[in-house]
Specification:
heterodimer, A: 261 residues, alpha+beta, Fumarate Reductase Iron-sulfur Protein, Chain B, domain 2, five-stranded mixed β-sheet, B: mainly alpha, 70% helix
């Protein structure tokens, strides 16, 4: 049943990357429990625009929980209090009338705040560019069944590929570590035959990029797994560690003359 | 442009060494952790001979001192110092990177799966480091001992624990060891990639059982001395 809520928001406002930010308090009146969290922010923003104030800037795109664009820390939890839910799929029925809601951006050195609740997640793109790809032959596609894939590997790869790159894992981690994200990307390719040629260079390059971007490292709290809207598991981190250890033990530098033919 | 120039940088240019990478230092942490946890387990088992009385205990101490014509203990000490040093170095360098990774904190952060043990690893580690220094001065060197007699390990053991303050610090340190071990043993299996749904319950179980055993037996020593069971 639809109800209406009156809430108090404590929102992080920051003009730009250089400016000092601060929390500001806004009332959110007559909010329907059927609204999504972002629709609630839209309502508050319309009010701010009417008053001639700067609306709260927040990232969003599909509003269906599949693009990974939205995300802020709501009441101390990335994407809010509901499990396996992105901020856009969080509904106001998860809150009580009279609630005070603190809304903060992802906090990490590698995710600088651009404005208010929007952070720059370009670091994730650069990690992907460092190794999150395969070499695919062009030309006529081969027969779909030419490469046998064990069903279990296909399932595990698919589970890892569910990662939408929203960054909630980094936001939740006390060390601002990106290992859940990186390990999901390493796993989704490393579990499949198409990902084998670059498997061991990929894991080294992606971990190196992750470190260079200034993310922390895993101390196995499990906070990332608990907030992930797509249910990515820490087993992926173990798989990444395994591949990294093997890649480091068996690393051999490229020989210029090698394979010259 | 040559084909080789079109790739996204060479692995050498992008990938730093094993020991400078985050995962590499975590592996150092885990492997030295195995050595250190292995040692405390064996140390605890050896010390249970205190319950057998003076002769077996002192005989055991003499055996440790004289194995491989007295060279054994120095090889062993070398390994322990190296393991403890590397463990501390990895902890410090990873912690500094982790603090740098989140310069601005949250106003309202709610943890869900982090445990008290996992959140206090750095503190329990610092307490353990301080305790190890004290413990060596207390029962190995003897300078922090009220009535140290070189070569009489049983006497040093009993007289050492008769001081309530020394026993209290020992017990507090053991509780820290418990927190450190409970998270550490589980955590190192994750770092080394020993994860499989079939054995995941076993990993937690192993950490809990080992922690209870080591800490339980270790705490029993000062209590037994103070209660007059070992005298």
């Amino acid at each position: 049943m639809e109800k209406h809520l009156n809430l108090t928001l404590h929102v992080w406002r920051q003009k730009n990357a250089q400016a000092e930010g601060a929390f500001a308090e806004y009332p959110a009146r007559h909010i329907s429990t059927e609204m999504s969290f972002l629709e609630m922010l839209d309502v508050v923003n319309e009010e701010l625009i009417r008053k001639g104030e700067d609306p709260i800037a927040f990232d969003h795109d599909c509003r269906e929980g599949i693009c990974g664009t939205c995300g802020c820390v709501v009441k101390g939890r990335p994407h809010g209090p509901k499990e396996r839910t992105t901020s856009c799929q969080l509904h106001m029925r998860s809150f009580e009338d009279g609630d005070h809601i603190t809304i903060e951006p992802w906090r990490a050195e590698a995710f600088p705040v651009i404005k208010d609740l929007i952070v720059d997640r370009g670091a994730f793109d650069r990690i992907i560019a460092a190794g999150g790809f395969i070499t695919a032959p062009t030309g006529t596609p081969q027969d779909a069944n030419a490469l046998p894939v064990p069903k279990q590997n296909a399932d595990l790869a698919m589970d890892a590929a569910a990662c939408i790159g929203c960054g909630a894992c980094v936001a939740a981690c006390p060390n601002a570590s990106a290992m859940l994200f990186v390990s999901a990307k390493v796993s989704q390719l490393g579990l499949l035959p198409q990902g084998q040629p670059e498997r061991y260079t990929r894991v080294r390059d992606m971990v190196a990029r992750m470190d260079a971007e200034g993310f922390g490292s895993c101390t196995n709290h499990g906070e990332c797994e608990a907030v992930c809207p797509k249910g990515i598991t820490m087993e992926n981190i173990a798989r990444m560690n395994r591949d990294f250890i093997k890649a480091s033990l068996l690393y051999r530098p490229e020989v210029a003359a090698g394979g010259a033919g | 442009m040559q084909a080789a120039d079109q790739t996204l940088g060479t692995p050498e240019a992008q990938a730093p060494g094993f020991l400078t990478s985050s995962v590499g230092r975590k592996v150092v942490m885990a492997v030295t952790g195995i050595i250190l946890f292995g040692f405390v387990t064996v140390h605890m088992l050896g010390n249970t001979q205190a319950y057998l009385g003076k002769e077996p205990f002192n005989h055991y101490a003499e055996l440790l001192q004289t194995m491989v014509h007295g060279a054994g203990i120095w090889v062993f000490r070398g390994v322990m110092i190296a393991a403890a040093g590397l463990h501390g170095w990895a902890a410090l360098s990873l912690s500094m990177d982790n603090w740098k990774a989140r310069p601005v904190g949250y106003r309202a952060q709610q943890m869900k799966s982090a445990t008290w043990a996992s959140r206090t690893m750095r503190w329990s580690g610092v307490v353990l480091a301080a305790f190890i220094v004290y413990h060596l001065l207390h029962l190995t060197v003897g300078s922090a001992h009220p009535a140290f007699i070189k070569g009489n390990a049983y006497h040093n053991f009993v007289e050492g624990f008769r001081v309530p303050l020394a026993s209290a610090f020992y017990i507090v340190a053991q509780l820290c060891l418990g927190l450190h071990m409970w998270h550490g043993v589980w955590s190192l299996t994750q770092t080394l990639g020993w994860v499989h749904p079939r054995y995941n319950k076993l990993r937690r179980g192993l950490a809990s059982a080992l922690t209870l055993l080591v800490v339980g037996v270790n705490i029993s020593f000062p209590i037994a001395v103070l209660a007059g069971v070992i005298k």
